[in-house]
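User: Predict the full complex structure for these chains.
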Amino acid sequence: MAKESKARRATIEDVAEAAGVSRAAVSKVLRNAYGVSPKMKAKVLATIEQLDYRPLVAARAMSGASYTVGIEIPDFRNQFFTKVLSGAKDALKGTGYQLIIAPADEGPKEGHRALEALLDRQVDGVIAVSPLVGQSWLERAAERTPMVMFARHDRSLHYDTVAGDDVAGADAVMQHLLELGHQRIAHLTRDEMVTEPGTPHGLRLGAYLKVMVEAGLADSISVTRCGEGQDLAYAATQSMLAAPEPPTAIFAGHDELALGALRAVVESGLDISVAGYDDVPLASHPLISLTSVDQPGAAMGARAVRMLLERLAGRTDAFHETFVPMLRTRKSTRPPANEALGNEHSPDVAPSLAE
Amino acid sequence: MAKESKARRATIEDVAEAAGVSRAAVSKVLRNAYGVSPKMKAKVLATIEQLDYRPLVAARAMSGASYTVGIEIPDFRNQFFTKVLSGAKDALKGTGYQLIIAPADEGPKEGHRALEALLDRQVDGVIAVSPLVGQSWLERAAERTPMVMFARHDRSLHYDTVAGDDVAGADAVMQHLLELGHQRIAHLTRDEMVTEPGTPHGLRLGAYLKVMVEAGLADSISVTRCGEGQDLAYAATQSMLAAPEPPTAIFAGHDELALGALRAVVESGLDISVAGYDDVPLASHPLISLTSVDQPGAAMGARAVRMLLERLAGRTDAFHETFVPMLRTRKSTRPPANEALGNEHSPDVAPSLAE
DNA sequence: TTGAAAGCGCTAACAC
DNA sequence: GTGTTAGCGCTTTCAA
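Assistant: Here is the predicted structure of the four-chain assembly.
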């Protein structure tokens, strides 16, 4: 009754037999390697087509390549990473490499886990966003599998890096807020784990602190931390706003947090400026109009892919590229509402030395 | 001078040797299969730990399983799919299966390509969002690899489906707009390719047309098409608004399109209602407040994974689950501004038969 | 309970 | 230019 239960997938052997050639010949055609006559090539190609043959990647990976590039990302709900993915995907188009994405869960060891999952699958190259993975481990892994790390500011001899200049970006935001006349500027960032020195959020936090101190606003320093995502940023901001003396401006570590903060601010009815980081597509929406630091995610993702392709092609010395971010000022930041109160509460700061 | 150039990765052989057992024994421990004494198990486990051994997936896949579940998605910039991914990822946690995501490019054959890439990699199971792939091809693929299709309304004996009730959802939107008093309701949807009969967007379009006709508004039917993404929706809406008699309400095929439309509407200064579909997280943001049809993406993704796990565990009969969507009305939809003009321009419709 | 050995489907190195 | 063959690192019979 049953026709042919689970028709077996054609193998290279089947193709060779049907075409009357050797497996090696078929293999060469597949990789269009050197040493096949046009005639044989045509015959093999026709047979492949006819049998609907597709090589199993696992078998190829066991001896040769997997023609696969893996990218590990910590949070695909963050539209910045989505931009990066787009850029990477497009840059990989037509190269013969297939892209697979391994999502990492939250947590210090999760990036590590996802990376290992990719390596276990013998991807030919890896792009990863893993600020928390130890450098020595990465070095060792990168010796075997070409690797470019995203948003890392360390320098390795074995892997390339693509990062934004987080200090410059954060400086720009802070400068902008100061120029608008803000003093009680709060910083909304992620948990300690994610703000270790040298990480993007660590650098942004550092820049915030430095600018505040240098502006004589050390007493107004206020750092609020929250977990990942708009919802947690929303909740954290709510408590921030409930404090006796809420900030007049909030600098959020990235746009996702900024959007959550904005939600709380809007609902509170208070006139508080909010700035973010990354310039996700929505930041420019007229209904949102969020001041943000433009990190060209797509270009960065594409650059990472190109670096990886270079390594795949044989390059062995390490490249480190830094993208210069660009502040986009929008309506979410404006002069503080209660300007009059501005100077009133900065005790140990001489009222404008430079005037 | 060089220490050990590219230290070889430990193999099962290395572990067996170091532990003084056979490869088969190690293999059994790895899969904690039946027939290993606790003593040997402990010894092997210790050796694995010590050698930092991890099995290569390719080798396992050649004979056995890859412990990998693949999910194919057409557009990770659409936050709806991002919700689905989240749900799927969480549901897979702790099952021993690793999730890999294959992004599909736009185009009729691209979903197919991404799916094949996954099958070539011998994933143990597949979840796919491929409205455009032919059913017969899918059937054949599903005979060999467990598969659950997302957002498909066809019924197969070999694959499961998880979908939303698109007709009910679209009906709800239209009913809502009609109740508000709108007549010139336009539908913004994707290109013909994506609105084939039976596809989600095809069903939504069909429901739109049906409701319009039944409401006696056949003359006001207006369907605008655009490519994927906010930007293209924005441009399409701009031309729509430039027409002599623009609509008073726009029903967009999904929220991404709705956000683009909203951008154009806001910029135009016109008072036009906009409704979307999917209820992406941002729709509820107070600054956006987009009326939308809530499709529980995370729950749907989790359900798809559970179905797949059931198949992986042996189920062979097909399941088809439909999720009932729920309209969320928000500020982006309100009564038409120029109510007075409402009836003036509906020539061949008897003014309310049922009154 | 344990181990030996035969593959899985490819590629690569080498003969012819 | 073409074919032969030895692996790659696992799992899976099947004996012991």
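The longest helix of chain A spans residues 297-312.
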